From TrEMBL:
Taxonomic source organism: Roseobacter cerasinus
Extent of the signal sequence: none
Protein name as it appears in the record: Sarcosine oxidase subunit gamma
Pfam families, per database record: SoxG
Top-rank taxon, per record: Bacteria
InterPro entries per the UniProt record, alphabetical: SoxG (IPR007375), TrmE/GcvT-like (IPR027266)
SUPFAM superfamilies noted in UniProt: Folate-binding domain
Length: 192
C-alpha cells in the first residue's frame, strides 16, 4: 500500500493540488453491447461516452479510456455498491468490472497557464479549440501514462498510477515554475 502524501504548489504559473479521494471502477468489455451500455447507465446515470470523451453529472462520471475500456468515477464510499450492481448486471456477458480506486492518484491543475503546464509534458494538442470541456485524453505525461480532462475553464483533473504520484507531482511542479509560461494560446504576448 502506498504511503499517504500531499502534493500542492501555487507559487508558479498554475496551481497544483492533490485531488480528493475518488472512487474508480475499470470496466472492460464490448462497449457496443446493449447489456453493458444499460448496466453503465443504470449504475451511473450516464451514457457510455464517445471516443475520447467523458460524461459527468452529480459527482459521477464515465470516461472513455479505450475501445473496450471505461473508467467509472464516483464517491469513494459508493464503489462497493456500484461495483456489485455492475457485476450483477454483467453476469451474463463477457465483461470485467474491478475497483481501481486505490491504484490511482489524482491532481487538480488550475490557472490561466494550466494548458501550458500540460502542453510541456504531454504530446496532445491542447489549443482551446482542440481540447475542451467534455474531452478526455489518455496519454503520456513526461515518462508515465496518465489521463486528464477539463473540469472547467483553465481547470484540469489528472490521474496517474499511485506508484507514480511523486514523480507526477514533481514534473508538474517543475513545469509550473514561476516565469515558465509559454503563452502559446495568449491573445497578446508581452513584447510583441
Amino acid at each position: 500500500m502506498s504511503e499517504p502524501m500531499t502534493a500542492g504548489a501555487d507559487g508558479g504559473i498554475a496551481a497544483i493540488a492533490e485531488a480528493p479521494l475518488q472512487g474508480m471502477i475499470t470496466l472492460r468489455g464490448d462497449l457496443s453491447d446493449d447489456t453493458i451500455r444499460a448496466a453503465v447507465k443504470s449504475a451511473t446515470g450516464q451514457k457510455v461516452p464517445e471516443r475520447g470523451m467523458i460524461n459527468t453529472a452529480d459527482g459521477v462520471g464515465v470516461c472513455w479510456m479505450s475501445p473496450d475500456e471505461l473508467l467509472i468515477l464516483c464517491a469513494h464510499g459508493d464503489v462497493p455498491d456500484k461495483l456489485h450492481q455492475l457485476q450483477e448486471s454483467l453476469s451474463r456477458v463477457h465483461a470485467l468490472a474491478v475497483n481501481v480506486s486505490d491504484a490511482r492518484a489524482g491532481f487538480i491543475l488550475s490557472g490561466p497557464h494550466a494548458r501550458d503546464v500540460l502542453a510541456k509534458l504531454c504530446p496532445v494538442d491542447l489549443a482551446p479549440d482542440r481540447f475542451a470541456f467534455g474531452q478526455l485524453r489518455r496519454t503520456r505525461l513526461a515518462q508515465v501514462p496518465a489521463a486528464f480532462w477539463m473540469l472547467g475553464e483553465d481547470r484540469f483533473h489528472l490521474i496517474c498510477f499511485r506508484s507514480q504520484k511523486q514523480y507526477v507531482s514533481d514534473v508538474l511542479t517543475v513545469s509550473a515554475q514561476p516565469g515558465s509560461a509559454v503563452n502559446v494560446w495568449s491573445k497578446t504576448i508581452s513584447g510583441t
